[in-house]
Specification:
Order of helices and strands: HHHHEEHH
CATH architecture of the largest domain: Orthogonal Bundle
CATH superfamily of the largest domain: Winged helix-like DNA-binding domain superfamily/Winged helix DNA-binding domain
CATH class of the largest domain: Mainly Alpha
Number of domains: 3
Radius of gyration: 19 Å
């Protein structure tokens, strides 16, 4: 690797680390405002993206034991953030869904940020540049996974 490439790699690495730290801070503050912990917030994010999930799938995605998933779902259900219901065709299974109130509260918190940041980013970069950034982020996500 040339010294120029090393310099770019170091700059990119620092930028990615800084971005990840900022996202962690943002998630921590969002969790605090919702009155949940960061794992609970991640569970809500997954459910808002997928609409419903089995507790076992949530445990796999979050790296939690069965007991930890049950405790998390109990907390979130008690807080009014999710519901559990029997699977429509397999009565041995349960499906978990975010409540409309929880989705509304979460979106009320994040929508202003999303709108503002989208406006700023779209005003600064061309569509072609943003395609490259999206490709970088998607590729990097795969590397991280």
């Amino acid at each position: 690797m040339s010294s120029e490439e090393e310099g770019v790699a170091a700059k990119l690495g620092g930028a990615v680390q800084g971005y990840q730290s900022t996202v962690d801070d943002y998630d921590r503050e969002t969790a605090r405002l919702l009155g949940v912990n960061e794992t609970d917030l991640r569970c809500l994010e997954i459910l808002m993206a997928t609409e419903e999930a089995a507790p076992s799938a949530l445990g796999t995605q979050l790296g939690l034991t069965t007991g930890s998933v049950t405790a998390m779902l109990d907390r979130l259900e008690k807080a009014g953030y999710l519901t559990r219901s029997p699977h429509p065709t397999d009565r041995r299974r349960t499906l978990v869904r975010v409540t409309p109130e929880a989705s509304g509260r979460a979106y009320a918190l994040i929508a202003p940020f999303i709108e503002d940041s989208t406006r700023q980013v779209m005003g600064r970069y061309s569509a072609e540049q943003l395609e490259l950034v999206a490709d970088f982020l998607t590729f990097s996500q795969g590397v991280q996974q």
